[in-house]
């Protein structure tokens, strides 16, 4: 592979690794620069809707991922008192959308992507390589890394900043300040499936809506573990993704006079929680400049109220790879094409997630009207209102045979 076909990616997260695989499939050599010196299977659960799984199937992740993912039958929506509001039928996603709806632990998806990258001689993963500076020149871009463990320079046609909400590439590119605190804190944990009631082990995404807070839980790791995420309005800013959280502080945001005993019992079971603060940004007018662009949370951090943060990074990766493959001899024009194809879509998803934030956390009397509306329209109509999200199609080059549709761990 000639050096002129080298793509540099900053960040070995879900978006960066998906982009690396998609680019390698299209004849590029990829160097992924990751500042962490060790990659650990961390993070919370992910909902991988059909718009994302189409891409994952296209890069060959389906066989290994389907073995550890769970295919939920429904999204069960309840209010804080435990009253059913809607059952959204997502189990028929392969028939309705042509691709499955999976839930998985982020660490499991990340491990699958890493394993796939390790089999590719045209993908090089460099750990301990922080993007401290870059220089644009006639042949593309050169990145300088001063650590934490790798000192040196890396050159390529383009640089993709897939380094998350605290992107160093974005800071160097635009210097537009840090991401803005959203006034929300998320707590996450995993429980062994045998530690919860049988109803919580079912292949169901459970969503509880309450005043100023909501709770999501579903099985992951082939049904062996239960992923819990509790999100509440909270102005305290926590640094990083894995600060320790206390059970007492979680329960304080889900008080007994508002939340059912079933929900609180589930929240009381974990002894350890991890917490992080949610952040966002206004829609970016520009995503890149010259041979540099951004991907995923680095450019459009998406609040988790539509379960589309990872999916947007995965979609970005597919369109980016397609754009560069179409115009390999004009990489800067290819990047502008990628950006123009993604801006409206991602901005719409970010807005929809923010709207859901308001709807999820309503207090009375507005919550009663929300509950009545959801009961009246029913789960099928709620799903239809998400068709515009799930029906998204990647470029035609990602078309593949039908994948496995069941993560064989629940039952």
UniProtKB/TrEMBL annotation:
<dbReference type="InterPro" id="IPR002938">
    <property type="entry name" value="FAD-bd"/>
</dbReference>
<dbReference type="Pfam" id="PF01494">
    <property type="entry name" value="FAD_binding_3"/>
</dbReference>
<dbReference type="GO" id="GO:0071949">
    <property type="term" value="F:FAD binding"/>
</dbReference>
<keyword id="KW-0285">Flavoprotein</keyword>
<keyword id="KW-0503">Monooxygenase</keyword>
<protein>
    <recommendedName>
        <fullName>FAD-binding domain-containing protein</fullName>
    </recommendedName>
</protein>
<keyword id="KW-0274">FAD</keyword>
<dbReference type="InterPro" id="IPR036188">
    <property type="entry name" value="FAD/NAD-bd_sf"/>
</dbReference>
<dbReference type="InterPro" id="IPR050493">
    <property type="entry name" value="FAD-dep_Monooxygenase_BioMet"/>
</dbReference>
<dbReference type="GO" id="GO:0004497">
    <property type="term" value="F:monooxygenase activity"/>
</dbReference>
<keyword id="KW-0560">Oxidoreductase</keyword>
<feature type="domain" description="FAD-binding">
    <location>
        <begin position="6"/>
        <end position="352"/>
    </location>
</feature>
């Amino acid at each position: 592979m000639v050096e002129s076909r080298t793509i540099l990616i900053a960040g070995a997260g879900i978006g960066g690794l998906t982009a690396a695989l998609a680019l390698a499939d299209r004849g590029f050599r990829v160097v992924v620069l990751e500042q962490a010196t060790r990659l650990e299977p961390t993070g919370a659960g992910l909902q991988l809707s059909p718009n994302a799984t189409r891409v994952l199937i296209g890069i060959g992740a389906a066989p290994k991922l389907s073995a550890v993912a769970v295919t939920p039958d429904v999204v069960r929506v309840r209010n804080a008192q435990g009253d059913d509001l809607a059952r959204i039928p997502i189990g028929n996603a392969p028939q309705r959308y042509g691709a499955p709806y999976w839930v998985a632990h982020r660490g499991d998806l990340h491990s699958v992507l890493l394993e796939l990258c390790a089999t590719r001689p045209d993908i090089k993963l460099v750990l301990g390589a922080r993007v401290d500076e870059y220089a644009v020149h006639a042949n593309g871009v050169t990145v300088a890394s001063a650590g934490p463990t790798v000192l040196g320079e890396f050159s390529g046609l383009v640089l993709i900043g897939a380094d998350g909400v605290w992107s160093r590439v974005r800071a160097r590119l635009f210097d537009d300040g840090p991401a803005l605190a959203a006034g929300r804190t998320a707590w996450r944990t995993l429980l062994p499936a045998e530690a919860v009631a049988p109803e919580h082990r079912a292949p169901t995404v459970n969503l509880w809506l309450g005043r100023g807070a909501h709770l999501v839980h579903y099985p992951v790791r082939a049904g062996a573990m239960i992923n819990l995420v509790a999100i509440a309005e909270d102005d305290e800013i926590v640094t990083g993704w894995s600060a320790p959280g206390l059970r007492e502080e979680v329960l304080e945001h889900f008080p007994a006079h508002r939340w059912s005993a079933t929900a609180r019992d589930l929240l009381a079971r974990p002894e350890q929680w991890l917490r992080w603060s949610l952040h966002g940004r206004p829609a970016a007018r520009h995503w890149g400049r010259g041979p540099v662009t951004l991907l995923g949370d680095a450019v459009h951090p998406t609040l988790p109220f539509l379960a589309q943060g990872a999916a947007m990074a995965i979609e970005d990766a597919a369109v980016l790879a397609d754009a560069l493959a179409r115009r390999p001899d004009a990489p800067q024009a290819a990047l502008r094409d990628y950006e123009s194809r993604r801006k409206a879509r991602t901005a719409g998803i970010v807005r929809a997630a923010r709207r859901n934030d308001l709807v999820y956390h309503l207090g009375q009397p507005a919550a009663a009207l929300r509950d009545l509306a959801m009961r009246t329209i029913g789960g099928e109509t709620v799903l239809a209102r998400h068709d515009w999200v799930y029906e998204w199609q990647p470029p035609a080059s990602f078309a593949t045979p039908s994948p496995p549709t069941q993560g064989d761990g629940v039952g």
